[in-house]
Amino acid sequence: MAYQGLHDWVKILERAGELKRIAAEVSPILEMAEIADRAAKSGKGTANAGGPALLFENITGYPGSRVLMNQFGSERRMRLALEAESLDEIAKRIEVLIHPVPPAGLMDKLKTLGMLAEINSFLPKVVDARVASCKEVILRGEDVDLLKFPVLQTWPGDGGRFITLPCVITRDPRSSGGQPGKRNVGMYRMHVYDGKTTGMHWQRQKVAAEHFRDRLRGATKDAAGAVDIMALTAGGTVAATDITSVPQTVLTKIRGERMEVAVAIGTDPATTFSAIVPAPPEVEEYIIAGFLRRRPLELVKCETVDLEVPAHAEIILEGYVELGELRTEGPFGDHTGFYTMTDEYPVFHITCITHRKNPIYAATVVGRPPMEDTWMIKGVERIFLPLMKLTIPEIIDINLPAEGVAHNLMLVRIRKSYAGQARKVMHAIWGLGQAMFTKCIVVVDEDCDVQNVAEVMLRVGNNIDPERDIQFTLGPLDSLDHASRLPNFGSKMGIDATRKWAAEGFTRPWPQMLTMPEAVKERVAKICQNLGLI
Fold first, then answer.
1. Which amino acids are annotated catalytic?
2. Fewest CB within 10 angstroms: 367, 380, 384, 507, which?
3. Domains of the chain (ranges plus CATH)?
4. Could you say which DSSP state residue 169 is in?
């Protein structure tokens, strides 16, 4: 049975022995983040890697408030969060959906109908506001004050407090067939400026930023007549939008034009996780949440904006961004282990706050790995591998090592069938959704376990001729990449660490790797066990 909300999830964590309640008084300024960081890095290399989930119950300056951190911070908790025996189990469910077996007889046809019914059950449903937990308290006007919640500052050089685990909901302004545009749920940090405004850090390649640009295009066209869209978007240096190249006279005219936004803080774990997954463009994250939960997500209409939000979230922020308004956001200590510097981003104005009575505020801290997001990234890696294999079928497995912080390094295991295939795979990955940001790709043969980083490094060190086997290219990079020659654009590297074939111009004999016969290993294993050596 899917968790209805964060309260249910906390109960499951405690019942499973995965939750640590912290009664000592702790400040939301740096102290809570430091505790969570230590927990995330504890037990490295053991079954307890990642430490426990943390529920802070005595927060300086916020009597009665509670904060949940490190909820996803271990492999076991990721499995609990998604209610699966293994993350690969969810991947197999996806494989069945994208590679269904054609029905051969009546029973198979009935099973296929059952599968279609199951898919239909993933669709979200809107419920009455009277049964929505997030509507227990409704604040408008002067009662709106974000600072009543214990929002954290996680690193000393941060520009202030940041909301770090929000589900940001926007809608595509382009309708289709008379139907409203697709909703998007993304996770973008929010720099808290005061009780009623925050930054909205949607990087330019994110879906919400595209929604913003579409609204901007429509507004600038209305304000200035036939505006050259290419001229508006070319040469922009702002990570979130491209409005710096819009003439100031046009910006002045569109001031007051708004795009509605809602933010859910403290949702059930599957919904929170769905906000970070690289969903296909046509699939709403609410449907992904339903798939992961095996139960439709219940939504409720907002009070002041035309959006639907998770009905049982702890806290909902409703509001808008003005199309002509930017404000300095940052610095922020990020998951790269470095501070991302200040930049200009849209401003989120809060018009209404609704929340549960005695809500639990959900937060995370990002920084030098391993951190909580290490395990969330591993979840994305395992669950969405089938979708990657659908496009690049020679891929057997991938690994996004913690030190690669999701977008800096991908290790890829392939079934090599022809010359140059490793390079083909590299370029295919660079053309695949959010994988386009991958700065370094290493490709190895099918007999190399990419989950064993030491084995991959052995292959790289031994199997490459650097001049021959390293591929460089240019393209988009993650906005957090501080080493690239330009913001959001720079070089990428692919390393072909596969065995080289004569068809690839390699004429020398390729040596065999050292292996021991299986029969010998089995016999010696028994001897060593009897001797107490293993």
1. 334
2. 507
3. 6-88 (no CATH), 125-362 (2.30.110.10), 392-504 (3.40.1670.10)
4. E
